[in-house]
Amino acid sequence: MDKLTTIKTFHTVVKLKSFSKAADELGLSPQLTSKYVSALEAELGIRLINRTTRRLNLTAEGASYFEESLKILESLESLENRLTDLKMNPSGLLRVSAPVSLGNQQLGDIIGHFLERYPELSIDIQLNDRKVDIIEEGFDVALRIGSMVDSNLVARRLAPVEVLVCASPAYTAKHGVPRGVADLKPHKVLKYSYLSNQSGFEGHETPVISNSGELLAKAAKSGIGVVMAPGYIVKDAIAAGELTTLFSLNETDNLALYALYPHRTLLSLKVKSFVDYLVDAFDGVKL
Questions:
Q1: Rounded mean pLDDT of the chain?
Q2: DSSP element (H, E) containing 112
């Protein structure tokens, strides 16, 4: 028999001073109401209520149990109310993991506006190009760029990521302008390790491989080779004339930015609110 139900039944009987009135209040039969209180007394090994045909009286032990168990019921009610508030109004700490360059270039304004909408939330965002273990390391959400995602996690696609092949003007002036993967054979290629499909890039001289497109872009500006990196990382260098777009790898590998989180059911409101906000923020954006 459910212990909490028996305690609540006992409290209702005491407050209304009647088994029949308590039964009406709880939507139970008088017999079942009496059975619940008797079961609680049997479990405790003490009499809580002295019953007569006309009235009910708490025993000394019953009065003590009533007062102490009332604290438990009030605490439980308070907890349930707080959880209801959390379901209605996201609050507390949200822990997020994201790649370094993505966080630095894309997330500052988004997080600022998100917290304006949900002022009771705070965010601990850790920028790391390592693929963290979300559950083991206690993150609520991880943002990742890739074409394959962990099947053990829920993945929401946020935006496509265009991978551009670029080089400095000095490099192309010296080594020529490749217009496709097949033209890269004689060139030094700085490889972006998040690009899962490396077909067509075998056999190239590869001075640098990194999961940081930002690092690769800076290296390419020095003229050491051709770089492949997400468009959002190299766009400023292209606009400044420090890098030139040679071609896109969209047909080679369809990368995207994903929001990953552990559970689809009973999802906390803070996670749902954040992921939904990201979906809206990146709507129509190509990174």
A1: 84
A2: helix 108-117
CATH of domain 163-248: 3.40.190.10
Question: Does position 97 have pLDDT exceeding 70, yes or no?
Answer: yes
Distance CA 80, CA 262 (A): 24
DSSP assignment letter at 182:
G
- 134 neighbors 258 (Cβ within 8 angstroms): no
Q: Which CATH fold topology does 92-161+255-281 show?
A: D-Maltodextrin-Binding Protein; domain 2 (3.40.190)
- CA dist 25 and 260 (Å) reads 46
pTM for this one? 0.65
DSSP 8-state code for residue 191: E
pLDDT in tens, 5-38: 888 888 888 888 888 888 888 888 988 988 998 9
pLDDT at 279: 94
| Bridging pattern class, strands 141-146 and 154-161 | unpaired
Residue 199, pLDDT > 70, answer no
Q: What angle in degrees, to the nearest 10, is found between the helix axes of 60-88 and 3-16?
A: 110
CA distance 94 to 104: 18
**Is there a contact between 104 and 232 (Cβ–Cβ < 8 Å)?**
no
